[in-house]
């Protein structure tokens, strides 16, 4: 029987953009923008993936407003950031890859200590991980959030990005509207899944109005988040169907898990409790050491661990391409995704370990990733995201420069 699956390393069209292959560097919060601006460290980080052979790299996490941050060191999409963003996109393009900006609003994942404001949620909510109170967002504020996504997308276009990725996953603000656990609203944004999908559809529509066909639009969306009574695959299928009917997206990257509780449902593998305890406030550390696996979740790693859920979405797609994420570490996994009907794959931790992994797989189809899924890279998002097993990544950048202000930032 002839294998009719496409070559994963051949060029492919994503909306208006031609990419050299089907491998996307997944968004991994970077912590390399301490002033909310691009640094040389951030440029070097993404240039390494471009030089390593990927089709497109994703810059994460790009806040649609200063109040939208989920962690320190994130870019705020503003005109002030434009000069540095242009240098970043130029560097990636020169290395032969495309570049996408992940746009998001943290919602319940935010913390007042970071943003200066009370976090927003579809309904009043207490974040079980941080203990932070989240207030219910008003209807007039929802319209403002939709416009913020449009404004951030305009900055991305002006900066030379090839795509924007709308963060509709992990119980960030748009995702929390999809969750019946967090969304108990009585207006048109609450109730059944069609109403709860209203915000993500409006954001996608607004971004398309702003960018037209100048860049590709991707959405990252939860299939399920691992929390009882929250997002599950039956309603996620309906949300994706509605987004596909609207035809405002060029691709959807399917994901799982949340940043609110049991984050290991997204990552799988080793649970770095001791490492997380070290970066938490002193009063939290004893409890985390004692109950860490219960709070974070404990899920064994398996190759292609999102595929069983993700394949349910393939038959319903009419207008939108699909991106497979989760446990992809070698060429065989990528080819499996292609055979299953996915158009692209996204890789995260494996590329943190080896930025040149795609080039290695092209040169030697039998290449296996050196990532061992210890997940200690998760903890580095509180400082500067990197693979802890690579000395050059861990110690190589003692300082970085804000490329717009010429400011040296010591680390």
Helical/strand content category:
alpha/beta
- Approximate helicity band: 25-40%
Q: Mean of residue pLDDT?
A: 90
Largest sheet: spatial strand order: 3-4-6-10-11-12-13-14
**Which residue ranges are poorly predicted, with pLDDT under 50 across at least 5 consecutive positions?**
396-411
Distance between the termini: 56 Å
Major beta-sheet overview: 8 strands, parallel, barrel
Outline type = globular
The rounded Rg comes to 20 Å
Total beta-strand segments: 16
- Estimate what percentage of residues fall within beta strands: 15-25%
Oligomer classification: single chain
- Please work out how many helical segments DSSP would assign: 16
Account of the protein in words:
This is NADH:flavin oxidoreductase. InterPro entries: Aldolase_TIM (IPR013785), NADH_flavin_oxidoreductase (IPR051799), OxRdtase_FMN_N (IPR001155). GO terms for molecular function: FMN binding; oxidoreductase activity. This protein has 411 residues and is α/β, with parallel strands linked by helices. Helix 1 links the parallel strand 3 and strand 4. Helix 1 packs parallel to helix 2, helix 4 runs parallel beside helix 7 and helix 10 packs across helix 11. The longest helix is centred in the middle third of the chain and has 20 residues. It starts with 11 loop residues before the first strand and ends with a strand. The C terminus is likely disordered.
